[in-house]
Specification:
eight-stranded parallel β-barrel, TIM Barrel, globular, about 25% strand, 12 helices, Lyase, Ornithine Decarboxylase, Chain A, domain 1, about 30% helix, alpha/beta, binds pyridoxal-5'-phosphate
């Protein structure tokens, strides 16, 4: 978890006062520090690139803001996209199609046609998808997502690689599927697996790479296809709590690249970090509307709920919170930080000690860059909030807050109901 500068009791991000950002752009607001984003990308890229050719496929479902994508495009990132919408968004942000790899599940024929038209790379998830893609185009490079039988993650909801999962080519069908792709005329380039999201240990990655290396060699021996890249997916966790350890990237990169180079003739390693790149680049600022002493519990009612940040309500996730305008004050009591949504499951943080919160204070929610804005919704008819980019002392709007009118856009009242 990152420390922020304290300027006479005010939390600073990227050289800008959080209180000034809240006043100028309104709340709730997501605030991203461009320098941290660039540092995170470079840290993970460089850790692997010193061992072998490396492609970082940023898993853009974590955060698809066009400005953030443009920064990662400047850094030379590749993209892991999971929908045609994400592919088109990344093309709009300037990514060349060759640097976008699509990995979908239960993909429709219409989506496959649209993907082929963009020229992006396709990572095929099932035998059905392979046969249906073959009817559209075969002289193209492809790869396969396989089910490795290794699962990991911060919540059962985001574990994707276990035996019997809905994702990927089942392990015992992998060889026949590669053989079939060759027979259909595809240029089969790689193998991919993704175990899940947000684990902090290196073990699942080593396990999945062992499984993939074994398959690379069997594919070579049994079908004659020499694969060029191995993609071991994303899921590299980040510390959300002050005492959480960081993932040791150097150890991870060394172990993985060593195994790949020792055991296979693979030339390029690919990985798909989403959370790792964007998570701690961004905080959510939300203002205190209401403070309530409800007997056994004290509530701090803020203007962001699970419509703005769903992770606590959906996954029981922990996000560190601080009062941004009382940044060096001593804490006075324990509070529940809750939002404006009419459900008791609507909370941002449980049982946190805070320094005497009052109406008008600004709560900073840490590590909000991954699966924050991208999972937000206008539930309870609260329009989605703004996003701001800070860089070396300057703040810029990168997404306008939605307006009430936006809630009605696309809705149609049949004429007969208006009479
Ligand atoms: C979600 C996802 C990722 C990224 O997971 P993170 O935990 O954000 O790193 C990578 N690959 C695939 C296929 C995914 O679905």
């Amino acid at each position: 978890m990152r420390d922020y500068e304290n300027d006479k009791g005010t939390m600073m991000i990227g050289g800008v006062s959080t209180v000034e950002i809240a006043d100028r752009f309104g709340t709730p607001v997501y605030v991203t520090d461009e320098q941290i984003l660039r540092q995170n990308y470079r840290a993970i890229h460089d850790a692997f690139a010193k061992h072998m050719d490396t492609e970082i496929h940023y898993a853009c479902k974590a955060n698809t803001n066009l400005a953030i994508l443009s920064i990662l495009n400047q850094e030379g990132s590749h993209i892991d996209a999971v929908s045609i919408g994400e592919v088109l968004t990344c093309l709009k942000a300037g990514f060349p199609a060759e640097r976008i790899m699509y990995t979908g599940v239960n993909v429709s024929d219409a989506e496959l046609k649209a993907l082929v038209a963009t020229g992006c790379r396709i990572n095929v998830d099932s035998q059905s998808e392979l046969e249906r893609l073959a009817k559209i185009k075969t002289d193209m490079p492809i790869s396969f997502r396989i089910t490795p039988g290794v699962a990991s993650g911060h919540s059962a909801k985001v574990m994707t690689g276990g035996k019997g999962a809905k994702f990927g080519i089942p392990y015992d069908k992998v060889i026949e599927t590669y053989a079939r792709a060759k027979e259909l005329g595809f240029d089969v380039k790689g193998i991919h697996a993704h175990t899940g999201s947000g684990g902090l240990t290196t073990e699942p990655f080593s396990q999945v790479v062992d499984v993939l290396c074994g398959l690379v060699n069997r594919i070579k021996n049994e079908t004659g296809i020499q694969l060029e890249f191995l993609d071991f997916g994303g899921g590299i966790g980040v510390p959300y709590k002050p005492q959480d350890p960081e993932c040791d990237l150097d150890e991870l990169a060394f172990e993985i690249c060593d195994t790949i180079k020792d055991e296979t003739e693979i030339r390029t390693v690919a990985l798909e970090p989403g959370r790792y790149i964007v998570c701690d680049s961004t905080i959510l600022l939300t203002r205190v509307n209401d403070v309530k002493d409800a007997g056994p519990k004290k509530y701090v009612g803020v203007d962001a709920g699970f419509n703005t940040l769903i992770r606590p309500a959906m996954y029981d996730s922990y996000h560190y919170v601080a009062l941004a305008n009382k940044f060096n004050k001593a804490c006075t009591a324990k509070y529940e930080v809750v939002g404006p949504i009419c459900e008791s499951g609507d909370y941002i943080a449980h049982e946190r000690v805070l320094p005497d919160p009052e109406e008008g204070d600004i709560v900073a929610v840490y590590c909000a860059g991954a699966y924050g804005f991208s999972m937000s919704s206008p539930y309870n008819s609260r329009p989605r909030c703004a996003e701001v980019l800070v860089n070396e002392g300057k703040a810029e709007l990168i997404r306008e807050p939605e307006e009430i009118e936006d809630l009605w856009r696309h809705q149609i009242i049949p004429e007969r109901l208006t009479r």
